[in-house]
Amino acid sequence: MNIAGFMKTSFVDYPGKIASVVFTQGCNLRCGYCHNLSLLDIDDASTSTVPEGILEFLFKRKGMIDAVVVSGGEPTLQRDLHDFIKELRTMNMLVKLDTNGTNPNVLRALIKDKLLDFIAMDLKAPLNKYEYITETSCLNLSSVLKSVEIIKRCGLAHEFRTTLCPELEVDDIPRIILDFDIANNYVVQRCRSTKLKKVPRNKQDLKRLTQWSNMNLPLSFRGFEVG
Ligand code: SF4
């Protein structure tokens, strides 16, 4: 595991639980709004934290920390992710995986071995804008679609989430829901910043989105006030 960061305590990353957060190094996407830019290069080991140190910390705080969130970067790129989570399981930790959904086989294997309790997957954009928003060419979108289906059917707690970056139109949200056939557990998140464009989200846009949500599918909103 190439772990670039570790947050000892979080009250917001695992719903209803006190969690620690592990940030893995390396991502296969390049979203313009990524706020973990230092985590993107898979070969960068400059801030590496030894997994054993993290496991030791968690072992000492058994009973105080309920869960571990494995985030990134993109955790499914880590070769020994499976073994690392197994170690967490020996401490009876709940485990949440944050993923961009590009590695359905890894996801399937973790679910099969009962190593996850909660999965949060990003839906970056409608299918026709995926490469633009993720700044990634030749992206295998069928893998992303496969991950969505795996998560929908796995029976675990989960959420799909989209960061409403300025490059997305409000109408893209219903398109995402249609493209991925999402019926529930969908969260629209505020975009904190983007290197592509710095435009504050128009309140009218959010109002439209709320109205659409009221008439169609209940959406959750995270990080912004909707009025
Ligand atoms: S998938 Fe996440 S970590 Fe990777 S570039 Fe996009 S926002 Fe950053």
Can you put this structure into words, describing what you see?
The structure is a single chain. This protein is of the alpha/beta class. It has a single domain, classed as Alpha-Beta Barrel (TIM Barrel). The chain contains 7 helices and 8 strands. It has an 8-stranded mixed sheet with strand order 1-2-3-4-5-6-7-8, covered by helices on one side. α3 packs parallel to α5. The chain starts with a strand and ends in a 5-residue tail after the last strand. The model has no long low-confidence stretch (mean pLDDT 92). The site of iron/sulfur cluster (SF4) has 12 residues, from loops.
CATH homologous superfamily classification: Aldolase class I
CATH architectural type: Alpha-Beta Barrel
Reading the helices and strands in chain order gives EEHEHEHEHHEHEHE
Determine the number of helices (DSSP H or I, runs of at least 4 residues).
7
Described by strand count, sense and barrel closure, the largest sheet is: 8 strands, mixed
Report the count of strand segments: 8
Question: First CA to last CA: what distance?
Answer: 43 Å
Helix/strand structural class: alpha/beta
Helix content: 25-40%
Strand content: 15-25%
Cα-based radius of gyration, to the nearest Å:
17 Å
Shape: globular
* Count of discrete domains: 1
